């Protein structure tokens, strides 16, 4: 029988798994790496869940844990993700099908975003998710002014990457 903690975690994970998939899309180069990173983020979320106090929305907290996990793994392994096994009860969260073909129109944007550094990726991701600068700053642990300045620089960088000839 599942505990209240487990039930709450599974429910929150189901409701917010697209956040994790999008972060995986930014940091993983292929579908296998995406699945491995998703699993590792889920494990880290579960490990940290008992400490979640509810001071912020679950989605904000999940962003922070997921981004920190992805950035840490990205830095450590340079896109070769080692996963940590989880022994215990298995919970099957129905996967929302994440179809790469449907995102073909975003391919160029993702290629450009992959050329950004890890913090820039996190910032542009949250910006594209329509997060306000207050939430971006809180999640990334930077000031709101710093988030705005960085975002303006990233926009310029992406313009150059997406249109190198300046046409």
Main attributes?
single chain; 167 residues; mainly alpha; Rna Polymerase Sigma Factor, Chain: A; Arc Repressor Mutant, subunit A; 2 domains; 0% strand; transcription regulation
Q: Overview of this structure, please?
A:
By secondary structure, this protein is mainly α. The protein has two domains: 1-98, Orthogonal Bundle (Rna Polymerase Sigma Factor, Chain: A), CATH 1.10.1740; 103-167, Orthogonal Bundle (Arc Repressor Mutant, subunit A). It contains seven helices and no strands. The chain has helices at residues 4-27, 31-48, 58-77, 107-114, 118-128, 133-140, 144-162. Belongs to the sigma-70 factor family. ECF subfamily. Residues 14-79 form the RNA polymerase sigma-70 region domain.
Please name the CATH topology of the largest domain.
Rna Polymerase Sigma Factor, Chain: A
State the domain count: 2
Radius of gyration: 17 Å
- Shape estimate: globular
> Secondary-structure element sequence?
HHHHHHH
Tell me the name of the CATH homologous superfamily of the largest domain.
RNA polymerase sigma factor, region 2, helix turn helix motif
Give a count of the beta strands, DSSP E runs of length 2 or more: 0
Q: Calculate the mean pLDDT score and round it.
A: 82
- Fraction in helix: 55-70%
CATH architecture of the largest domain: Orthogonal Bundle
Biggest β-sheet: count, sense, barrel? none
């Amino acid at each position: 029988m599942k505990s209240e903690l487990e039930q709450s975690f599974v429910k929150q994970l189901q409701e917010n798994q697209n956040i994790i998939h999008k972060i995986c899309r930014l940091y993983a180069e292929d579908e296998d790496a995406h699945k491995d990173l998703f699993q590792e983020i889920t494990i880290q979320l579960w490990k940290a869940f008992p400490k979640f106090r509810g001071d912020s929305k679950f989605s904000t907290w999940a962003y922070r844990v997921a981004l920190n996990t992805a950035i840490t793994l990205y830095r450590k392994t340079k896109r070769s993700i080692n996963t940590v096994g989880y022994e215990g009860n298995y919970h099957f969260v129905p996967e929302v099908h994440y179809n790469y073909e449907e995102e073909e129109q975003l391919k160029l944007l993702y290629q450009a975003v992959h050329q950004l550094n890890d913090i820039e990726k996190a910032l542009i991701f949250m910006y594209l998710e329509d997060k306000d600068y207050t939430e971006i700053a809180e999640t990334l642990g930077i000031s709101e002014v710093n988030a705005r300045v960085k975002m303006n620089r990233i926009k310029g960088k992406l313009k150059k990457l997406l249109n190198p000839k300046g046409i």
